[in-house]
Amino acid sequence: MANALLIQVLNGLVYGGLLFIVSVGLVLIFGLRRVVNFAHGSLFMIGAYVGFSIATVAGFWAGVLGAAVVLAVAGVLLDVSVFRPLRRQDPIATVLVTFGLLLILEDLAHTVWGKDTHTLPLPEMLAGSVDILGQPFPAYRLMVIAVAAAVGVGLALWLRFSRVGLFVRASSIDPVTTAVQGVNTDRVSALVVAVGTGLAGLSGTIAAPLLALSPSMGGSILIESFIVVVVGGLGSFSGALIAALAIGQIHNLGIIYVPWAATMVPFLLMVAVLVWRPTGFAGSHV
Amino acid sequence: MSELLAFSNVVAGYGGARILHDLDLRIDAGERVAVLGRNGVGKTTIVNAFLGIARRMQGEIRLAGKAVGDIRHFTAARAGISVVPQGRCIIPNLTVRENLILGAAVRRKGAWTVERVFAMFPILKERADTPGTALSGGQQQMLAIGRALMANPHLLVLDEPSEGLAPVIVDELADNLRHVADGGTGLLIIEQNYSLVRRVAERYYVLSKGEVAEQGAMAGLTKESLKKHIAV
Ligand SMILES: Nc1ncnc2c1ncn2[C@@H]1O[C@H](COP(=O)(O)OP(=O)(O)OP(=O)(O)O)[C@@H](O)[C@H]1O
Ligand SMILES: [Mg+2]
């Protein structure tokens, strides 16, 4: 019983980890550009397809890396062509453009990859399972947890200890003062958007073997990521981590123990947080 | 003398509002210059104009001798002009040390390092790892000055540095600024506090309604014109 619960907790961590990688991208982009990127789920979906296409010719890991790079480049284009020109307009303009982009990207996926669902096979090396306290657990899922942990640690170290990370934290609070110190905050923003969309691409490919690829696969992860971002506090890195892990568990345990309410619980949590502490439980700093 | 900052016939403001009219001003290397003027005459707008925050509508702004058409926020820092903004603008989620490191973003080599700033303002060393905004007003002013010096600027521009400081702290500030100037850094001090300016500047401009109403050597500034243009 206890072991079965442990397996469920691990499964929750898998989903929470994926959710973290997606939402931390949203958080970073919001921190620098004050933009709620509705296209983020579609970038996750495009990442899954791009990774799928690369993986079928060049192997799984090339797919993961390739999807991250392609989506990062797309992120730079997105920043330069949408976020930067619209930064002085009403934020609703940017939101509408990213919403339009969501629709365009779904159509693009339909056109390029067709309406049939694809499945990305597991990499051979990780196809088996690992024994955890006498229970088998898929090795691939452990790897997903490890990647999420690596992304979290890597980002935290980068933000905390690197020079550019310092510029990122400073720009997210006071872009004008940061720029006055000589920092080209537009470049910092483009980099951060690229990191955010690159992570969406990476997580899309990592998630692909666990989900069926379809043009609409970005929808539910986008919604749950929004919940993570709201619960964790808009723009908060540590808040996103805690909220993603919590919602991963809630999502997973909910499906097992209260299936009739599983999809509702994250929303209830969001409503509760909004009522109890509207800034989220970690405030609002990157 | 090489020119650090110059305004020629500059008209600048915000949106459609013109705040500076036909402004002429020039600071050369190693000079210590004051800009005096009452509340709201446009002193901060001078700073905002060369930082690309206010809009230049006419005239020419030269940074380190070069006319700049499209001024970005980072242009001045990269030309060797650092600003201690009015209100200090310490970044709250960075520690004291990180705020200083941010000031070195332009990576210009020179005498000013974190250690040297700590030597001038020992209290900053004691509080190096606390958030910058946890400091008192006077300490935040030191931090803002330290941050600006970290860029090893040729010109340090201070916008009302004495605002909100106790008189003893203003005295210390005057000593610190003279120390900075002795190292060869030019100073442009925007102030309403005559006693600070008198001890630091050698030349002055008096700003009135967005124009230079008077200028000259500090020694020649009379009580009458002071009374006329700023409250003493
Ligand atoms: N960002 C802005 N947008 C629009 N108008 C502004 C802005 N900043 C200042 N102003 C206006 O420009 C005029 C001059 O302001 P400025 O801040 O340059 O004055 P100042 O001499 O620095 O005053 P103080 O001594 O109070 O700092 C004021 O009328 C002010 O209302
Ligand atoms: Mg002012």
Automatic annotation (TrEMBL), chain A:
Compartments, as annotated in UniProt: Cell membrane
Transmembrane regions: 12-30, 60-80, 92-113, 139-159, 190-213, 225-247, 254-276
GO molecular function, a single term: transmembrane transporter activity
Domain of life where this protein originates: Bacteria
Keyword Ribosomal protein appears in the UniProt entry: no
GO terms for cellular component: plasma membrane
Membrane topology: Multi-pass membrane protein
InterPro entries, A to Z: ABC_transp_permease (IPR001851), BCAA_transport_permease (IPR052157)
Coiled-coil portions: none
Protein name as catalogued: Branched-chain amino acid ABC transporter permease
From TrEMBL, chain B:
Top-level taxonomic group: Bacteria
Keyword Protein biosynthesis (UniProt): no
Domain ABC transporter: residue ranges: 5-232
GO molecular function: ATP binding; ATP hydrolysis activity; branched-chain amino acid transmembrane transporter activity
GO biological process: L-amino acid transport
Keywords attached to this entry: Amino-acid transport, ATP-binding, Nucleotide-binding, Plasmid, Transport
InterPro entries to which the protein is assigned, alphabetical: AAA+_ATPase (IPR003593), ABC_transporter-like_ATP-bd (IPR003439), ABC_transporter-like_CS (IPR017871), BCAA_Transport_ATP-bd_LivF (IPR052156), P-loop_NTPase (IPR027417)
Entries under PANTHER family matching the protein: ABC TRANSPORTER ATP-BINDING PROTEIN, HIGH-AFFINITY BRANCHED-CHAIN AMINO ACID TRANSPORT ATP-BINDING PROTEIN LIVF
UniProt record similarity statement: Belongs to the ABC transporter superfamily.
Protein name: ABC transporter ATP-binding protein
Provenance organism: Azospirillum brasilense
